[in-house]
Task: structure prediction
Amino acid sequence: MEKERQLLIVYPHPDDESFSVAGVAAMQADMGVPVTYACLTLGEMGRNLGNPPFATRESLPHIRKKELIAACEAIGIQDLRMMGLRDKTVEFEDDEKMIAMMRQLIDELNPSLVVTFLPNYCVHPDHEATARAVKEAVRRTPKPQRPTLYGVGFANNTVEEMGEPDVIIDISAYREHKYNALKAHASQTGWMLQELENREDSHGETTEDAWFSTEKFYTITFDDE
Ligand SMILES: [Zn+2]
Result:
């Protein structure tokens, strides 16, 4: 992967970044690229309270904030922006307000690459609202400054309808970063990592390899290009 000028990552929930782009973000940070993560909420409505539970409704936002900071440290993200929206309500935010928020980030940072979800293929209403706003904000960026936009799609019908992702990046050198980032989100991922480790024990490398060897993206393009 080429060295970017500035990477901007936009997701609604703490842990979206670790699942989607931890390897690429770690790689770019390692190359000396400034990496900004705009995390729109603190995931305070998350259903998981740890397994076994160690969070309460009251403590979850504080715990997730700490987890988010730890995950960013594990990845090497130097610039974490907590944007202060409320979990599960991103879909009800005014579209123009969301787009303006994204435009401001793009204007300030002048990223060469923006990473978010793939509109229509990212399952959760907060994900869709985020992806829509980011895409529109990038579309409205004047062409000479317009960054490349990558979307992560993971709906069941993504590959069937969109084909295979056009960008596949080998992140195997950064698997530790990704693993540690996921581990930092213990309230949400504890069960999953346990399962991964268990599966490794019985079946060898397969599950672990799929998760930690590549990250895949769809390049989002615009009609006027
Ligand atoms: Zn999410």
